[in-house]
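WARN retry 2 of 3 for item q-0093 after timeout on previous attempt; input resubmitted unchanged.
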Amino acid sequence: MNHLTNEELSDLIQKATAGDKKALETVLIGVQDLIFNLSLRMLGTFPDAEDATQDILLKIITHLSSFKGESSFSTWVFSIASNHLKSYQKHMFAKFPLSFEFYGDDIRNADINDVPDLTQNVERSVLAEELKLSCTNVMLQCLDAESRCIFILGTMFKVDSRIAGDILGITPEAYRQRLSRVRKKVADFLKEYCGEYGNGTCRCADRVDYAIQNHRLNPGQLDFTVAIPKKMLDVREAMEEIDGISHEFSFCKTYQSPEGLKKFIEDFLNGPSFSVVGNA
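OK item q-0093 returned
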C-alpha cells in the first residue's frame, strides 16, 4: 500500500470499519502479498502459508478498528502476522522439525546416483530451479521460530531495526545483534554445503530425481517458479545494512499470492461474516 498517503489509507480504513466492502477489499489486497510472503518463509510450504494467511487476514479484519495510526499500517500488519506465525503449530514442519545437522547429513550421505529419471517429461532445468527455490525456503525451517522471523524481517523485507524491534518487542540493538548472528549461521551453512549459493558440492540439477523420489519435489506442481512475478513486488520498508553478507541471500525472492487468497477475500466480502468488521 506504499502508493497511498497516510490520509488516504486512514480514510480507507475508516470506510472499511464502517462497512464499505470496496474499501476493505482494497486494504486486504494491499497487504495480502506481504502477509503471504512472510507466512511462506515462516512455514515453508505454499498450502501452509495460504492457510495461515487466511487466518491473519481474518485477524486484521476483526482488529482493523483498533489501528490508530501510531505506527505505519504495514508495521501494524507485520506485528499481527509475526505474532501469529511464531506460535503457529498447524504447519508440516511443526510436526516434522528440521535442523542444519539433518540438512547437512542428507547432502553428504544421500545416494543420488542410482535414482531413475523421474522428471515426467518436465525440463530438468525447470525442476532444478524449483528445487533451488524450495530448498532454500525450507532451509529456513532449521531455525527456531524467533530466529526465523528475525532473519526474514531483516533479510527479505529489510525492515529497519527500530521498526523490527517494535514488531518483535526487543530493542533495536538486540535485534541487530541477533540478526547478524542468524544471518552468519545461514551464510556459513550455505558456504559449506550449497553449490548454488556457496562453495559446497550440492547442486540442484544433480538432486532432482532424488528430490522427486523423496517427495520433496513434484514435477506436476511447481509452486515456487510459477509464483515469481515477472515484475518483482516491492514490499520493503526502510533499508538498513546490518552486516556485510547481504549478497549471500539472493534466494530471498518475493512471490505472488495464490489465487485462492483472492477468492477467500471475495467470498468473505460477499458472505454473512462481513458484518464482523463493523462490529469488532
